[in-house]
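Appendix B: complex inputs.
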Amino acid sequence: MPRHPDIRQLLIDAALALFAERTYEGTQMPAVAARAGVGVGSIYRHFASKEALGNAAFQDAKRDLRARLIAATAEPAVSTRAQFTQFWSGFTGFASSRPEAFAFLEHQQHDTFLDEDSRALAAELDQMAADFIEHGQRAGAIRDGEPRLLVALALGALAGLLRAIRPATVTDIPPVERDRAEEAIWSLLSASPLSAKDS
Amino acid sequence: MPRHPDIRQLLIDAALALFAERTYEGTQMPAVAARAGVGVGSIYRHFASKEALGNAAFQDAKRDLRARLIAATAEPAVSTRAQFTQFWSGFTGFASSRPEAFAFLEHQQHDTFLDEDSRALAAELDQMAADFIEHGQRAGAIRDGEPRLLVALALGALAGLLRAIRPATVTDIPPVERDRAEEAIWSLLSASPLSAKDS
Amino acid sequence: MPRHPDIRQLLIDAALALFAERTYEGTQMPAVAARAGVGVGSIYRHFASKEALGNAAFQDAKRDLRARLIAATAEPAVSTRAQFTQFWSGFTGFASSRPEAFAFLEHQQHDTFLDEDSRALAAELDQMAADFIEHGQRAGAIRDGEPRLLVALALGALAGLLRAIRPATVTDIPPVERDRAEEAIWSLLSASPLSAKDS
Amino acid sequence: MPRHPDIRQLLIDAALALFAERTYEGTQMPAVAARAGVGVGSIYRHFASKEALGNAAFQDAKRDLRARLIAATAEPAVSTRAQFTQFWSGFTGFASSRPEAFAFLEHQQHDTFLDEDSRALAAELDQMAADFIEHGQRAGAIRDGEPRLLVALALGALAGLLRAIRPATVTDIPPVERDRAEEAIWSLLSASPLSAKDS
DNA sequence: TATGAATGAGGATTCATTCAT
DNA sequence: AATGAATGAATCCTCATTCAT
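Resulting structure:
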């Protein structure tokens, strides 16, 4: 049993922060160890390799995000618009409590090192988002179009926003701007304003 | 006298493609040379270092994009909406003719290697986009909000879209989906229809 | 904790030997590592670069020589001739205990890689020798002439001798030849016997 | 036939100068070409390789020195001392007309690249000097001792002198210092002053 | 169990040499 | 014949990984 209760999580957090800042490839194991405040050798008691650490970090972040989205959308929402706000708060909550984790996830199309499990997890989250879109489309609240493309547009916009304000986090944005951003992304998704009554 | 007409551009294109695919840090010089079809040593007759190549590639891409945006917006547009279509076609034209270049640019917040010139060029393009937003806001056509954040949202959405369809390009998307995407991003930006005066 | 007590010194000695044999430029880092019996990577835990290793080796050798000269000349000598013998034994003692170090030092006019500290140390030793000459000249025991040129002549002669017998060392020369060499170099320096007052 | 009457010699001179300044290993072929004012490719029309150029340069220098020594000692000398002056003027004449060549020769114990011919030529010159010493010893004018060691002492002294004054040449030394140096080196060689009458 | 010194394969860069012009 | 752009083997250096302590 590790001396420190959770060296593993310490390492994942350190890795996430560095990967977000300098890329997976641009991050050295000694740097991860230093940031976590442990010796290099200790990393290898917890992860078999850099690749294993990378995947563990990715999955840790994705699972956390998934948990938040599930929690945020647990309560039944009266409208698609309200449901969107649930998603929005799930995403922004995650992005503000673990900004590096969010930043890291937003960059993983460069996923040379991602393994099967990581990819499966990523697909699962994409599916959750696509489901929301499809549901909204059926309700006439979300504009027509390939759900995955709409998801990509919306998440891309959110990622763009967070990248632009870095190193600040969503919570640092003045509330009025934050609400405007939510509204803007909602407009990106919502069906023509005239039919937006339901939303 | 160079044996090949333009090894420099060949190298920049190879670098752009690989950087977009596997990150600047994750790309090895021999891989760049191989993709360009030249010997490793030849890279160094054209660029002083990997860093120099990275910056040259970044600037080449940014300049190309700038040229396209300038060309696309040259003709006076009757409305902000029409002006948006000009920008949209500038961006999508660039993204479809040089998809790797666009993908690469969309990833440079990890810009550990960017030099002064590269940053200045990036700032110039950001300014062009922000100017468009401000102008549209004064015309009452674009929603309120910090222009740079709106730019980030819109470009982020576009980047998300392109990332999602990769390795296909915008031109590969069925026209109906492409128009929906344009419309969606426009909605992201446009002032609420009720307050819209010219759009 | 270092596994080997003094890798740093091991590396300096290996470097000195190889630099003396094949020039600084002609020596590869893997060769230094091999001769020291360590891995290449280990060099870089002790020295930042080849240049740093070169300077460390140079300074190590110069400091050792300085210490020996100081020790050899510590005891007050009754005559300039006796003082010369002190210097001689300092130089030959150093040359025979660390022949490669001596050989290396004798080659550093090709000092493309020497830094400020190395040059300062070299100047200090030159000054010690020049002081001895001037003192001897004032005593009428050493011939007239620019002290630094006389130093150059005498040290050059010693270097020539050691180079000629390599890879043997001074201690390997039959005592009679060694005494003759000492006498010869003394003659190089001493005032003409007729004008010699104390020698 | 080369366009320029003697590109070969131009290259040898350039090589000699650079080798003396930065070591054989530390000198790049393009640098030699640049200094000679020709293209890199042209070197290879005259010399098969860097090694061939190195040996050609070495031999060119040694042959020149040999010619000067033969010329200088052609006229029969009345005494060993007078003969020494002939040698001295041969050496210093060479050293002042081709300082880089002399400097280069003085460094070739680092002769990793010297071939059979170069070594033979070097041995021949050593022999000439040793012959002079032995002859002088038989005449009672030169001190006892292994001739090769005495040669090494005397040439080493001369080399030390020239190294010390670099980049100036012997001709730049004030005549009085030059005569003192000659006298000093002669003292290094000459038999005990009392018997120096013959010299 | 935790460490960090040691390692060597792998990456960036240089440079002797070739060869199309 | 002369050139210098192109090449890739060889060099310096880095960094993921191991292992003695």
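Residues 1, 3, 28-30, 40-41, 43-44, 49-50 of chain C lie near DNA strand F (CB under 10 Å from a C1').
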